[in-house]
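Tutorial sheet, problem 5. The two components below are modelled jointly, 221 residues in total.
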Amino acid sequence: NAGVTQTPKFRVLKTGQSMTLLCAQDMNHEYMYWYRQDPGMGLRLIHYSVGEGTTAKGEVPDGYNVSRLKKQNFLLGLESAAPSQTSVYFCASSPSDTQYFGPGTRLTVL
Amino acid sequence: GEDVEQSLFLSVREGDSSVINCTYTDSSSTYLYWYKQEPGAGLQLLTYIFSNMDMKQDQRLTVLLNKKDKHLSLRIADTQTGDSAIYFCAPGGGAGNMLTFGGGTRLMVKP
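Model answer (structure tokens):
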């Protein structure tokens, strides 16, 4: 099993550009999550999904959208990137309790 | 919402025990997790404890939970240089089992 994978690993955007981050898991987990991690801080939940076709807002959802069209994939979209969205983004999946994390995507918005 | 507090930094000598502390506010947390993050890497699950337990031991790791004081600790016995990392406390539970992370404790192990 590859576990949780994230694409891309690094990305630099200009303000106003859009992009989509992809998270994939091959463990047949129901739950999936998107977090951001800023320097010196813990992870903050952006959005999450408790099953295919469902999404819900987390602690810091503004400026982001998500979709879970397939059980194994959870997409995070930035429609109009802002410098405040410069961060490291982590995806996680869970069967119901323990969350397993991907390696992260480092995003810089200039 | 839940608040989770951790001290920022801990320095120990190789071979000593390390104790990392965490306090939280939501008494309804069902599971309480400890994750480890090495530089430039994702989060690695270390261990967790159910809220109805007081203690859990897993090889060099001991987790203590004081529900009354909402205090969680992680003890690492015989700390090694490879244990140098940031450690995050994360209580969770409820619908979707959302986790709330503390700010992390940076553990530095000196040879």
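Marking note: Chain B touches chain A at residues 1, 4, 31, 33, 35, 41-45, 48, 88, 90, 92, 95-104 (CB under 8 Å). Full credit if you identified this.
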